[in-house]
Design brief:
- The protein is an alpha+beta fold.
- It has one domain: Aspartate Aminotransferase, domain 1, CATH 3.90.1150.
- It has a six-stranded antiparallel beta sheet with strand order 1-2-3-4-6-5.
- The longest helix is centred in the C-terminal third of the chain and has 20 residues.
- It is globular.
Length: about 120
C-alpha cells in the first residue's frame, strides 16, 4: 500500500491543476483529502454543474473531470499512459504522478474549461 505522505504529495500536485481554474469556477470543498469545483448554475438542470474534484482515498488519489463525461471527444489523442489510469468515463486514479502525465492532465483540464465556456456552462 502507498504511504500516506506519497498520496498527500500526489493529491497536492493534482489539486494544483484544478486550483488554476478557481477564478472561473466555484470551490465547494477544500479539505485535506477533498477538493471540489462546480461550474455555473444551469437553468436546464436547475443546479450548479459539477466540474472536477481531487479526492484522496485509502490507496490512491482520484482526479475527476466532468467535461470528459459530457464531451467524450475531449479524450481524442490522450496517451495510453493516461488512459490506463481511467476508471469509468471521467475519473483517473493515481498513487504517484510523473511530470509528463501531470502536464497532459493539466492540458486536458484546460480543454475541459474551454469547452465548458464554449457551451455556456462557465
Amino acid at each position: 500500500m502507498p504511504e500516506k505522505r506519497d498520496l498527500q504529495a500526489t493529491f497536492a500536485r493534482l489539486k494544483k491543476i484544478l486550483q488554476k481554474h478557481e477564478k472561473h469556477l466555484t470551490v465547494t470543498a477544500d479539505e485535506p483529502d477533498n477538493y471540489y469545483l462546480d461550474a455555473a448554475y444551469s437553468e436546464k438542470f436547475k443546479r450548479q454543474i459539477f466540474f472536477g474534484a481531487v479526492r484522496m482515498k485509502k490507496r490512491y488519489v482520484s482526479f475527476h473531470l466532468m467535461p470528459l463525461y459530457a464531451f467524450p471527444d475531449l479524450l481524442k489523442g490522450v496517451s495510453s499512459a493516461l488512459r490506463k489510469r481511467m476508471q469509468g468515463k471521467s475519473c483517473f486514479n493515481f498513487t504517484t504522478v510523473d511530470d509528463e502525465t501531470l502536464a497532459e492532465l493539466a492540458a486536458l483540464t484546460e480543454r475541459g474549461v474551454e469547452r465548458f465556456k464554449k457551451e455556456g456552462l462557465i
